[in-house]
Specification:
By secondary structure, the chain is mainly α. It has 14 helices and 2 strands. It has helices at 2-7, 34-38, 58-76, 113-128, 135-142, 146-152, 156-167, 169-183, 194-208, 212-223, 229-256, 266-287, 297-312, 315-318; strands at 21-24, 27-30. β1 and β2 (27-30) form a beta hairpin. The protein starts with a helix and ends with a helix. GO terms for molecular function: DNA-binding transcription factor activity; transcription cis-regulatory region binding.
Length: 319
């Protein structure tokens, strides 16, 4: 209506449109009056008068009726409370692991995200298996979105490899370093005997594998060997062969310096040596009853070393 009146010259009288009627000289007349639409309004105090008859055409009557109804609606209108803004769903920055909206707000530091993702991956791998684990469930454990997980790991295979490097590979590298320190010295100048080195290596490995995060990895590789042979090949190259070479080198040095019998074959003896650790991992992870306490690393190493070393030690050493 306002734009319509501007076009027809009614702009001087916009301030009178609040209630739908123009008031001038104490006289009311409809907005659609020909006088209003033309903009030719009489001057206050002059002898000119307004036309008494209202416009009879149907369009004018409809406009007048609309203005009257609109005025009554405005008079009876009550103010409404502004609508509250919609709350955004919890995201990585506002929701903890599990995505619970009622939990305290927090933000995972970028440097902590890989470790959190690997922790979530280990939970899912142990619970559902490697093939059954889903990226979205791993992200939920880590308190991250699925897209964020892919920024750090492009596949479950990459996560498993990172878990091996985080948990088991440091043990293999530690045994390798222990053996390298001993083998770097000439046989005649060794400060530690081969038997003592084997004892220290076995004790270190047994103590480290007590951690459930460490012991879960060999069991996971064994369980998925048939479905993912490439994982087995990589685990053997990164862990198993590193340990076997380290232990085999110590046994060979013991044969060289006369500690162990000459007829001992190092690459066979090493399987007997490390077999006890693997068996104990399987026993605790699969066969251990809920009412049974696992053997301590000290019990395992002491019994096994007694049997193993007495089987390979030279006759003069036994006496």
């Amino acid at each position: 209506m306002i734009l319509y009146s501007m076009i027809l010259g009614g702009k001087p009288y916009f301030s009178y449109l609040a209630n739908g009627y123009l008031k001038e000289n104490n006289r009311d007349f409809p907005v659609c009056s020909p006088v209003f639409l033309s903009g030719n309004m009489p001057v206050r105090g002059s002898r000119a008068s307004f036309p008494e008859d209202r416009a009879k055409d149907s369009s004018c009557n409809l406009i007048n009726d609309w203005l009257f109804i609109n005025k009554r609606s405005r008079d009876n209108m009550t103010l409404r409370k502004p609508a509250e803004p919609r709350k955004k769903p919890p995201t990585e920055a506002s929701s903890p692991a599990g995505g619970r909206p009622d939990a305290p707000r927090w933000r995972r530091k970028p440097e902590e995200r890989p470790e959190a993702i690997l922790d979530g991956a280990l939970i899912e791998f142990r619970t559902r298996g490697f093939s059954g684990a889903r990226i979205e469930d791993i992200a939920r454990h880590a308190g991250l979105s699925k897209g964020t997980v892919y920024l750090y790991f492009d596949s479950k295979e990459a996560m498993l490899q990172a878990l091996v490097e985080r948990t088991v590979k440091p043990i293999a590298m530690g045994l390798q370093q222990m053996a390298a320190q001993m083998l770097s010295a000439p046989a005649a100048d060794m400060s530690v005997s081969a038997a003592d080195m084997l004892r220290m290596m076995l004790q270190m490995a047994a103590q480290r594998t007590v951690d459930s995060k460490v012991s879960a990895m060999p069991l996971l590789i064994i369980a998925e060997a048939g479905n993912f042979p490439e994982l087995v090949h990589r685990y053997r190259a990164d862990v198993v062969e590193v340990v076997m070479q380290a232990v085999e080198g110590v046994i060979a040095r013991g044969i060289e310096n006369g500690e162990f019998r000459r007829n001992v074959t190092p690459h066979i003896a090493v399987r007997s040596f490390i077999g006890v650790i693997l068996l104990q991992l399987i026993w605790n992870g699969v066969f251990l009853r809920s009412d049974e306490d696992p053997l301590s690393p000290e019990e395992i190493t002491q019994s096994h070393l007694d049997l193993f070393l007495n089987g390979i030690v030279a006759e003069k050493e036994k006496n």
